Fold:
Amino acid sequence: MTEKKQQALTDIVQISRQYQRSIRVDADIGRADALSGYICHATAASVIEGMCRQIADTNQRCFTWTGPFGGGKSSLAVALASALHPDKALRVKARQALHLDSKPYFDRAFPVQKGWLIVPAVGRRSSVVAELHAALRKAQGKTVDGRSKPTSQSLIAELLEEAKSRPRDGALVWASSWRLPPSAPETMSISFKSSPRLRLAPKAAWWSSACCISPSRSIRLA
Structure:
């Protein structure tokens, strides 16, 4: 008499890829499978709506997202960046996931023709300028020249040039979960109010460390 094989939990329950690992903005932007199973809940929709209204009706170009781990900040960042990506098929999938057809402010705030320059940067205990410069080089398809040392002014100038070179698109920078080194100044911020086509969006999480991006500690490059 053969024993009846018991079903394991894995035979009954399957975990969507969306919840199997943490999202990384520098690795997952541009991947269609990173949007699979994404659910745009009411809070995420409200964040997008608020940003779009601010960009469309004011000079605000810099935003900080804060919240606990697992709150969906990185997933939303990937979805938003995908909606601006040069890959048209990816844009369509992201727009569907974010229900952007019902958000008229989005196309006013983020007009897309050929796709935006997306510059995702994940923070490390190193120079903010150096990390953003390396992320920009990667987004441009260039290598980082270790002999040159970018300054905050040269980085800002290059980002502005990239934005100006895309008159019907723009440039989007995500600075994610930045751990500032102990030597970092107490207040630093990213702000580009002079260019209507350059959107800089620093994104952060609440950390137990004192070196963090929070509503009281932002990053200034200018």
About this structure: The chain has one domain: 21-203. Strands lie at 117-122, 171-176, 198-203. Residues 178-222 have pLDDT under 50 and may be disordered.
